[in-house]
Every structure is written in C-alpha cells, then in structure tokens.
C-alpha cells in the first residue's frame, strides 16, 4: 500500500472562474462566497475504483456502439486518443474515461435538444473506456459538428467532445471539453474563453495526429489529459496523525 | 536562465453542459446503449449499517430549482472505510461507495439510496463526523462544485468535526447538515443545495 499522499493544490488560475458574465447561465449558477480550502483527508485522496467488468470492450467505439447491424453513422471518421497523466507526468492507470458528443450535424441524441439538424439513426454519441498500464486511452467516433445555442442570438459552440475523468482520488475528478485544432469558433466561444490563460485553452485543443491516422480509413486527433499530481511526503505525513 | 520545473499542468475544466446525461446517464437522455449504467448502487446488497435515502433540490441564485444537474456521491462504509486500495481496512463485497444521480427534468428533485457512513479518521488523528462527499456539475457551472453532506442526528460529532470547524461563520455551517426525517419506516435526509444567494451552501476547494 502506498502511503496516502496529498494532491497538489489546484491552480484555479488555469481553470475558468465560477462567474463569467459572457457565459450567461453561469451568472445565477456561481457561488458568491469564496470556496473554503481543505487540506486533503482520506475523503479527498480516495475515490471510486472501476474494473473492466463494469464496461464492455466496444463501449469505446462510437461508430459501432449504437449503429444498426451493417450500418454506420454519417460523418468524418476519427480516432481520438492520448494518455491520462498526472502533473508529475506519471501515467494514471486503469482509470475510467467517459465521453459524449453531438453527431456530425451538431445534434445531440437527447430529448431536450430541439435543434433542427437531424438525429443520426446510427449514432448514440457516448463512449467509455479504461486507461491501460501506460495511461493510454482511445476512442473511435465521428467528428462532431458545431451547433447553435441560446447565449447571444448568434452563438455557436465550436466542435467539441465532452470528457469526464476520475483519476485515483475524488480530488482529481474532472470534466472538460475537447476542441479541435484550427476551429475558428474557438476564439469566439464564451465557454472556451472563460478559461483565462491562452496556454490553458491550447491545452483543451486536440491536435491533428497524422502518425496515428489509418490511411484510407480514419483520421486521428491526439489529446492528453492531465490530472492533479501528488506530493511526495518527504519529511512529514500528518494524515494519519503521526 | 532560471531552473525549469517540469511539472505538467492540470487540464482546465469546462462546464458539463446541458446534455451531460448522454454521456453519464444515457437512459435519462432517452436511449439505452450500455449493458449497465454506472453509479446506480452505492452501497450494494451486503453493506452493514442503516439504510437511508438522501434527497433534495439544487437551487440557483433566483431560488429556482436547477433541472439539469448531475451529482456524484463518494462515501465510506458504516465502519468509516473507503472502498479504495490506499485506505486501510475492508469494505463489504459489492460496496463501491460511489454513486451518480441526476435531477428530475420536471421537478429538479434528486435522491439516492445508500447506507449512513461511519466516522472517518481525518488529519492529525482527528475523527471526521459521518459525511458524504458530493460533487455537482451542470450547464453554467464551469468547474465542478464540491461540498459535504453531514447528518442532523450527529450533533456531537458535527460539533467536533475538523472540516465543519474550518467554516468560520457558524451560520454557514448549517448549510452542510442534512435534516433527518422518518416516514413509513424509511429514513430520509433532506439536503437542498443553494448555489448562490441567501443561505448559499458552503463549497470547498479540496
């Protein structure tokens, strides 16, 4: 058993603040008081453990996991792959990665989505996988389309895939969005631009990866996910009272 | 040239958006795709301890229930042990300690069935009162909000809890306490989350 170690403090300057007036929904959904900072205890250092029995091997293939037999979704076939690492550049092994997205036309398979672009009968839009011993994950899907939303009258989300990651401790729990290199909607989007640091925006942008592209079949994007790292307790370990 | 510290930087958070259910609760989005959705059973059939239900609403700054929230719970078993390899001790077979629920699209009500956790050893040998760690994401929430659910029938333990006592404003501590009631032999704890405004719930940077 590894000695329980605390996570590095989250750098809130790399994350969007709670209140961003240009992203209108955040105005009434952001706390006005400051967060109370907690030193980690067992409650934050531990987190749920998942196993391969929890999911099916095809759950990471969005091209087949909702398609009728012999059919396929319409759209640009892509591989989305990368590693889940911590801030110490160590692989985060056997952790659950979940994604969800719109179809090629920007329409979600969700009863609340009323956008006029049609549902694709062969596309569900969600996938999940476990990272391997190197922290590696991969999905196959179609590239999602941009879609309009009611923020300003003419607001459009850049193409994106939502991603959810667990890590090993509840303090690492993270949901983000993956954008695609070169998309001209990225600089216009109030949700993306809520991230205050241009370098951090670059970090949520997947890069075209020709080396992982399958010729005449599927193009590829690479996206590494970084979760909080853990301190080495060199001279103290006060968690258990010593 | 100054020394370069080669740490990577945490991936920035983004809102889960309005359609978080597609990925994390597809049945609620209106379609079945997975053999089994995760997070429906926190404690499992073998867990010891008192069976309880925790339920509530999540309210925005106008006092309106938010109807597109996803909540995740993380808790210890009745002996105060987390189902995690780094926490000493054993949990019952099938006890995961983690659950995931969404708010009802029409009413905003959410709830989960579990067992009441035991006290957990905290920092410096100080015992933490029984609590459930709660994480909320939704459209309009740029980074997930962390809070804790404590229990109204644990006055003495709550008064000694090292985390509750970090909240300098005693009035605000009340926002972390779920209210116990019994109806038809079922034990229900009510925990309403106020994201903003009067009686705003305490949220933590963990």
Automatic annotation (TrEMBL), chain A:
<dbReference type="GO" id="GO:0019619">
    <property type="term" value="P:3,4-dihydroxybenzoate catabolic process"/>
</dbReference>
<keyword id="KW-0560">Oxidoreductase</keyword>
<dbReference type="GO" id="GO:0018578">
    <property type="term" value="F:protocatechuate 3,4-dioxygenase activity"/>
</dbReference>
<feature type="domain" description="Intradiol ring-cleavage dioxygenases">
    <location>
        <begin position="45"/>
        <end position="229"/>
    </location>
</feature>
<dbReference type="Pfam" id="PF12391">
    <property type="entry name" value="PCDO_beta_N"/>
</dbReference>
<comment type="similarity">
    <text>Belongs to the intradiol ring-cleavage dioxygenase family.</text>
</comment>
<protein>
    <submittedName>
        <fullName>Protocatechuate 3,4-dioxygenase beta subunit</fullName>
    </submittedName>
</protein>
<keyword id="KW-0223">Dioxygenase</keyword>
<dbReference type="InterPro" id="IPR000627">
    <property type="entry name" value="Intradiol_dOase_C"/>
</dbReference>
<dbReference type="Pfam" id="PF00775">
    <property type="entry name" value="Dioxygenase_C"/>
</dbReference>
<dbReference type="InterPro" id="IPR050770">
    <property type="entry name" value="Intradiol_RC_Dioxygenase"/>
</dbReference>
<dbReference type="InterPro" id="IPR015889">
    <property type="entry name" value="Intradiol_dOase_core"/>
</dbReference>
<dbReference type="InterPro" id="IPR024756">
    <property type="entry name" value="PCDO_beta_N"/>
</dbReference>
<feature type="domain" description="Protocatechuate 3,4-dioxygenase beta subunit N-terminal">
    <location>
        <begin position="8"/>
        <end position="40"/>
    </location>
</feature>
<dbReference type="GO" id="GO:0008199">
    <property type="term" value="F:ferric iron binding"/>
</dbReference>
<dbReference type="InterPro" id="IPR012785">
    <property type="entry name" value="Protocat_dOase_b"/>
</dbReference>
TrEMBL record, chain B:
<dbReference type="Pfam" id="PF00775">
    <property type="entry name" value="Dioxygenase_C"/>
</dbReference>
<dbReference type="InterPro" id="IPR015889">
    <property type="entry name" value="Intradiol_dOase_core"/>
</dbReference>
<keyword id="KW-0560">Oxidoreductase</keyword>
<dbReference type="InterPro" id="IPR000627">
    <property type="entry name" value="Intradiol_dOase_C"/>
</dbReference>
<protein>
    <submittedName>
        <fullName>Protocatechuate 3,4-dioxygenase alpha subunit</fullName>
    </submittedName>
</protein>
<keyword id="KW-0223">Dioxygenase</keyword>
<dbReference type="GO" id="GO:0018578">
    <property type="term" value="F:protocatechuate 3,4-dioxygenase activity"/>
</dbReference>
<comment type="similarity">
    <text>Belongs to the intradiol ring-cleavage dioxygenase family.</text>
</comment>
<dbReference type="InterPro" id="IPR050770">
    <property type="entry name" value="Intradiol_RC_Dioxygenase"/>
</dbReference>
<dbReference type="InterPro" id="IPR012786">
    <property type="entry name" value="Protocat_dOase_a"/>
</dbReference>
<feature type="domain" description="Intradiol ring-cleavage dioxygenases">
    <location>
        <begin position="46"/>
        <end position="197"/>
    </location>
</feature>
<dbReference type="GO" id="GO:0008199">
    <property type="term" value="F:ferric iron binding"/>
</dbReference>
